[in-house]
């Protein structure tokens, strides 16, 4: 567990539209934890409950179907946040959700009851909370829309473009399949098609994006 710095507290307090009182609460009640890449937190854990703010890294929120198929609901990265309630259930999405750290990450946590008290005592924080809930709900509905109405090829392209850094995506085909809720064999076929079209190159657990893929209409 790491101590909070003044800069960290100020950054988070600004994000939630807080005041001097909320800054004091963040200092007294908040904690910072670090997690290694690949670490998962399951629904029966109370390890991360409350307001979660990513100081560095990236976190994936996903659900697992009865046949063990994973589907990513959304991800949050540095300077983004989410609210998690009992048993690692998103407070605004009534489904069991697993958290996976996609990179070595550092996160700030403010316990549920503390954040709830802040929300009800400060109108600006209440507005921030409602805005955050709305944003995460939209991401969840977008995921449902993608799975229901978009072709697998478009979903793979969207994943690649959303996760590329310097035109490279560090992910195995199995990882891509888990993220978009598909079978690895089906994703492999799409990857081969994109490679044949000259839109990507593949290395071990890495995909290199070529210029042409950025010109595609995948929406």
Automatic annotation (TrEMBL):
Assigned keywords, A-Z: DNA-binding, Transcription, Transcription regulation
UniProt keyword Protein biosynthesis present: no
Pfam families, A to Z: HTH_Crp_2 (PF13545)
InterPro entries for the chain: cNMP-bd_dom_sf (IPR018490), Env_Response_Regulators (IPR050397), HTH_CRP (IPR012318), RmlC-like_jellyroll (IPR014710), WH-like_DNA-bd_sf (IPR036388), WH_DNA-bd_sf (IPR036390)
Stretches of the chain forming a coiled coil according to its record: none
Alphabetized GO MF terms: DNA binding; DNA-binding transcription factor activity
GO cellular component: cytosol
HTH crp-type domain boundaries: 150-213
Family matches, as SUPFAM superfamilies: cAMP-binding domain-like, Winged helix' DNA-binding domain
PANTHER family named among the record's database cross-references: CRP FAMILY TRANSCRIPTIONAL REGULATORY PROTEIN, REGULATORY PROTEIN YEIL
Name of the protein described by the UniProt record: Putative transcriptional regulator
């Amino acid at each position: 567990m790491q101590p909070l710095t003044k800069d960290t507290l100020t950054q988070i307090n600004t994000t939630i539209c807080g005041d001097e009182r909320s800054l004091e609460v963040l200092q007294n009640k908040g904690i910072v934890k670090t997690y290694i890449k690949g670490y998962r937190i399951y629904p029966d854990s109370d390890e991360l409950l409350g307001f979660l703010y990513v100081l560095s890294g990236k976190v994936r929120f996903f659900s697992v179907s009865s046949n063990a198929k994973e589907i990513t609901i959304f991800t949050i990265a540095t300077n983004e946040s989410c609210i998690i309630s009992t048993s690692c259930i998103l407070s605004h999405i009534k489904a069991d959700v697993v958290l996976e750290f996609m990179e070595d990450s550092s996160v700030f946590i403010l316990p549920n009851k503390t954040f709830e008290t802040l929300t009800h005592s400060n109108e600006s924080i209440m507005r921030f909370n409602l805005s955050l809930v709305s944003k995460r709900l939209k991401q969840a509905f977008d995921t449902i829309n993608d799975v229901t109405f978009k072709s697998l090829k478009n979903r793979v392209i969207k994943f690649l473009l959303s996760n590329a850094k310097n035109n490279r995506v560090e992910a195995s085909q199995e990882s891509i399949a888990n993220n978009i809720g598909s079978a690895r064999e089906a994703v492999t076929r799409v990857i081969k098609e994109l490679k044949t079209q000259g839109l990507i190159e593949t290395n071990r657990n890495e995909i290199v994006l070529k210029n042409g893929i950025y010109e595609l209409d995948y929406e």
